[in-house]
């Protein structure tokens, strides 16, 4: 296969390859966002119950309950009302669908692991003049959770997200590469031109310009796919959702600590 034939096949097939990669990348980005959002739901539930508890508390009232016991009570209540009570009573119409999402995104075992690990890390905290590093504890728990950090329990979210995040730049590079490959294939014909034959020279130049114009479409396709990938990555951003989830959980623990 000579350079010209390779360039033709490469230019024709490149947009379809970029389209397939874009669809796969968008699907993975959506699944990652859904995985984090399902676990962020548990953090919101915990935050809501801690808020409801704090509303009924009175400043200056002495509690004979440790931080560990209070956090354990709130976490177990959140888990019980979110999963056990829902599974037992099936009170809401969305329970069946939600149960399927729990199985797909491993929400229930992930939240159970989260509750257990958080309680293990705060079990021996003592009151001092300095606030304990609850944010560090929360981040460590979420980052080490084997159910939160894998898509469908198989693909690691961190490395997959890194690959999907660089797709917009890769689309631009692939489009430019396709254009240069097309130019390289067209230049092969220019070397054999006979300038004495005006008609043949014009035909070669017209064909060369047509091939260059066709090769430029790969750059246009690369730019379009890059813009679409940027939009998808912005709309479904698991990092932003993850930071919000950690902040919600840590602020709830802070409220319980100071109470």
Query: Rg to the nearest angstrom?
Result: 29 Å
- What order do the helices and strands follow? HHHHHEEHHHH
SS summary, helix count: 9
Low-confidence stretches: none
Shape by Cα distribution: rod-shaped
Secondary structure tally: strands: 2
Largest sheet: 2 strands, antiparallel
Indicate the mean pLDDT: 77
Percent range of helical residues: over 70%
Q: What percentage of amino acids are in beta strands?
A: under 5%
**In order across it, which strands form the biggest sheet?**
1-2
Look at the helices and sheets and give the structural class: mainly alpha
Q: Terminal Cα separation, in Å?
A: 75 Å
How would you describe the overall organization of this protein?
This protein has 259 residues and is mainly alpha-helical. 80% of the residues lie in helices and 2% in strands. The protein has 9 helices and 2 strands, in the order αααααββαααα. A two-stranded antiparallel sheet has the order 1-2. Strand 1 and strand 2 form a beta hairpin. The protein is rod-shaped and about 105 Å long. The model has no long low-confidence stretch (mean pLDDT 77).
């Amino acid at each position: 296969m000579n350079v010209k034939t390779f360039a033709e096949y490469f230019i024709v097939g490149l947009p379809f390859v970029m389209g397939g990669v874009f669809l796969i990348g968008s699907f993975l980005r959506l699944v990652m966002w859904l995985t984090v959002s399902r676990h962020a739901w548990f953090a919101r539930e915990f935050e809501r119950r801690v808020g409801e508890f704090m509303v009924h508390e009175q400043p200056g009232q002495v509690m004979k309950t440790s931080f560990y016991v209070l956090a354990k009570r709130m976490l177990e209540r959140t888990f019980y009302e979110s999963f056990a009570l829902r599974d037992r009573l099936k009170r809401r119409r969305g329970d069946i669908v939600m149960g399927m999402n729990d199985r797909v995104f491993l929400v229930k075992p992930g939240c159970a692991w989260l509750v257990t690990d958080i309680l293990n890390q705060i079990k021996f905290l003592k009151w001092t003049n300095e606030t304990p590093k609850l944010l560090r504890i929360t981040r460590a728990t979420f980052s080490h959770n084997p159910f939160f950090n894998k898509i469908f329990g198989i693909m690691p979210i961190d490395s997959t997200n890194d690959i999907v995040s660089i797709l917009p730049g890769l689309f631009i590079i692939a489009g430019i590469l396709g254009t240069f490959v097309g130019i390289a294939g067209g230049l092969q014909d220019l070397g054999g031109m006979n300038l004495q034959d005006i008609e043949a020279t014009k035909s070669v130049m017209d064909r060369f310009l047509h091939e260059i114009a066709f090769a430029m479409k790969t750059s246009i396709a690369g730019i379009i796919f890059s813009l679409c990938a940027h939009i998808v990555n912005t709309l479904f951003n698991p990092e932003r959702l993850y930071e919000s989830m950690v902040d919600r959980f840590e602020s709830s623990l802070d409220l319980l600590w100071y109470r």
